Amino acid sequence: MTVHRGDPRTDARHAALRSPLPEPERQLPVDVTWLRRRAKMFAHVAQRPFHLVVDLQAYASATGLAFHSHYVAQVYRGPENARLGVPLMAVNLARVGTREEADRALAHETMHLVVPSYGHKVAAFDRAQLLLDQVGQLDVTA
Ligand SMILES: [Zn+2]
Fold this sequence. Notes:
The chain has a single domain (about 1-10, about 25-135), classed as 2-Layer Sandwich (Zincin-like), CATH 3.30.2010. Helices cover about 50% and strands about 10% of the residues. The chain is built from 6 helices and 4 strands, in the order E-H-H-H-E-H-E-E-H-H.
């Protein structure tokens, strides 16, 4: 459930996710304000609210999970017998250099919230791409 370099097939599927942002904007850096607005768009199209957390120490102490510095993003739904009403999504701003990378991470993690059983199968990334496409549609009508 964590985006970081690992299985090469998963990495390739992640890297193939296409951001709907126009080319020049894809390469822009990510700030917290943009990331929060963007995360809300993913939550909206997925109809799955989550709290975005960029303070990784706060995330680690709230969840009891280690958030290693090479991690890009992670979701936490709470323990199996006590799921959180609104899950947490941690994003490591130091690891998302561009809006394109942030879009991939947001889509990937939102997908885990929507279809946790899909793991990192092809279908999981098809779903993540669908979320990106839906966020792109929001852009047009915004
Ligand atoms: Zn994952």
